[in-house]
Amino acid sequence: MHPPDHQKLRTPEAAKRLGVAPSTMAKWRVYGCGPSYAVLGVRGPVVYDPADLDAWAASKKRTSTSDVGRAA
């Protein structure tokens, strides 16, 4: 059995972990600007790895309002 932190999270749980609405997660998937995700099966649920959510959130850290982050 995997530890709870290695379980995949569905969109509502992932959104709660990041502090955003599930609809925001859906928009990020459309625009390709959110955390990595997987789709299980042809029409299966979208799931997120907690480690990917944490890494994505960490990549958004800034030190000032003028810090725009790395160039894309």
Question: What does this protein structure show overall?
Answer:
This protein has 72 residues and is an alpha+beta fold. It has one domain (4-54). It contains 3 helices and 3 strands. Strands 1-3-2 form a 3-stranded antiparallel sheet. Helix 1 packs across helix 2 (22-31). The longest helix is centred in the middle third of the chain and has 10 residues, at 22-31. It is elongated and about 40 Å long. The relative contact order is 0.18. The mean pLDDT is 89.
What are the key terms here?
alpha+beta; 3 strands; 10% strand; 3-stranded antiparallel β-sheet; 72 residues
Helix count, DSSP H or I runs of 4 or more residues: 3
Overall spatial form:
elongated
The profile of the biggest β sheet is: 3 strands, antiparallel
Give the proportion of residues in helices.
25-40%
Sequence of secondary-structure elements: EHHEEH
Q: Calculate the terminal CA-CA distance, rounded to whole Å.
A: 39 Å
The strand order across the widest sheet is 1-3-2
Q: What is the number of strand segments?
A: 3
Tell me, rounded to a whole number, the average pLDDT: 89
Taken together, the total number of domains comes to: 1
Which residues form runs of ≥5 with pLDDT under 50?
none
Radius of gyration: 14 Å
Give me the secondary-structure category: alpha+beta
Strand content: 5-15%
Q: Any chance you could write out the topology, listing elements then pairs?
A:
Elements: E1 9-10, H1 11-18, H2 22-31, E2 38-39, E3 46-48, H3 50-59
Antiparallel strand pairs: 1-3, 2-3
In short:
The protein is an alpha+beta fold and 72 residues long. The chain has one domain.
